[in-house]
């Protein structure tokens, strides 16, 4: 990071270079602006704050599909470093419009990851894209962002993906397992626990998935949630499918003693099950 005084001296020339007719000059300027604007200490002076934010608009303009791939990648990297909700929306749109592996998808995704939870709403278009590869990348980006805001969008992808989009379901299921491990660790987040509580039915339904990666991840997530997941596991165990019942029983066994009271109550209420 550089000092604010040094950064403000070079921002205007670099912004000017973004309009150069030579695309390699535009690329180098785009790549430079992010590191330049990551100053040692955030300024308190409003004019300096305005100056450091000035490149965001011109960099967003470079996300256009008309620009060469490397220019767009450089702009995405700098926008990710600078962060902020203002950049998240255009980055999400660019990701949804970008042809994976042919464009700057990886750089766009990384930029959104760097912005963090404020970028979650911006991923919606890519998460609903008709191309499974784009949905997979968006789901992986959401998984890497993590946090409470990602739980329900991940559950949506887990429940709505078609049978042939198994890779997307795997990414979503693994991400939910990781969220559960984080939420119920000693330093776990109550907000994340609350959001996971809203997707327990989706995780329980995923026990019936045809892919073992998916149903094992769902089992592990439910087991990590613990007592509040017991009713869903009991229902799954009684559903009639031997494999699903066995997987649900494994989840209950992993919960251990905390599952016993509800399990005994269920047996009493349903003696034939």
Automatic annotation (TrEMBL):
Keywords: Repeat. This is TOG domain-containing protein. It comes from marine sediment metagenome. GO terms for molecular function: oxidoreductase activity. PANTHER family: DEOXYHYPUSINE HYDROXYLASE, PBS LYASE HEAT-LIKE PROTEIN. InterPro entries: ARM-like (IPR011989), ARM-type_fold (IPR016024), HEAT (IPR000357), PBS_lyase_HEAT (IPR004155).
